[in-house]
Amino acid sequence: MKIAGLQKLTLLDFPNKVASIIFTQGCNLRCPYCHNSGLIPFDSDDLISEEEVFSYLKKRKGVIDGLVISGGEPTVQSDLIFFIKRVKDLGLQVKLDTNGCNLDVLKKIIDENLVDYIAMDIKNTITKYKDVAGVNVQADKLKKSIELIKNSSIDHEFRTTIIKNIHDIKTISEICSYVDGDKMFLQNFVKSENVLGKHLEPFSKEDLIQINKEMKGKFPNVKIRGI
Ligand code: SF4
């Protein structure tokens, strides 16, 4: 696994768990709002070894409940499944953050019940996916990934970063409709010097309240983070 970072402790990223997070190097997408753009290239001179990660996890067993595997996009790592099995062998729970593009890997992970939580980002409506993903994606595979996660017995959530220049009530409603009543979080874009799209703007507080009002009637399981 190409691991670019280890955050030793988080109380926020794995629901109801005390966890560590690793960030894998490499992503197949180019989202203009990406706060981890340094993790997009498939290689880096600044990686940390798996052994360093496992040595830390072994020491913290009993203090942390689990490990979040985030990125970059973890499913592009050829040895992800082997790595997850090693973490599970330590008795830790695993949460996987994914953009859902790699259907085959997701299917294997779900079929073999290898993780305890999956969070999948849905970037945009299927027809306009490229506006956010920055590259062409296979829409049919994305929809299958959503279905696969929705119908699995693994705890999960879907989430969309909403951006004023890109999304509106209509597109947000369409995205929410893909998960068909499942748990979904909308998170407002946060401006930062690190993102690729310097022109992007977040929604205002008033916009978010309005979006919340509109979504609540139609999709009771959709929540906006931070309002
Ligand atoms: S999928 Fe995630 S890591 Fe990849 S470019 Fe988009 S925001 Fe960044």
How would you describe this protein?
- With 227 residues, the chain is of the alpha/beta class.
- The protein has a domain at 3-159: Alpha-Beta Barrel (TIM Barrel), CATH 3.20.20.
- The chain is built from seven helices and eight strands; from the N terminus they run E-E-H-E-H-E-H-E-H-H-E-H-E-H-E.
- An eight-stranded mixed beta sheet has the order 1-2-3-4-5-6-7-8, with helices on one face.
- The structure holds iron/sulfur cluster.
How do the strands and helices of this protein lay out in sequence?
Elements: E1 3-10, E2 19-24, H1 50-60, E3 66-70, H2 80-89, E4 93-98, H3 103-111, E5 117-121, H4 129-133, H5 139-150, E6 155-162, H6 169-179, E7 184-188, H7 205-218, E8 222-224
Parallel strand pairs: 2-3, 3-4, 4-5, 5-6, 6-7, 7-8
Antiparallel strand pairs: 1-2
Helix pairs in contact: 3-5, 6-7
Bound molecules: iron/sulfur cluster.
How is this structure best summarized?
This protein is 32% helix and 20% strand.
What attributes characterize this protein structure?
227 residues, alpha/beta, TIM Barrel, eight-stranded mixed beta sheet, 7 helices, 8 strands, 32% helix, globular, binds iron/sulfur cluster
Q: What is the total tally of β strands? A: 8
- Relative helix content: 25-40%
Please state how the strands of the largest beta sheet are arranged side by side. 1-2-3-4-5-6-7-8
Give the N-to-C terminal Cα separation: 37 Å
Mean pLDDT: 95
Structural class: alpha/beta
Rg result: 17 Å
What small molecules accompany the polymer chains?
iron/sulfur cluster
Runs with pLDDT <50, length 5+?
none
Strand % is 15-25%
CATH class of the domain at 3-159: Alpha Beta
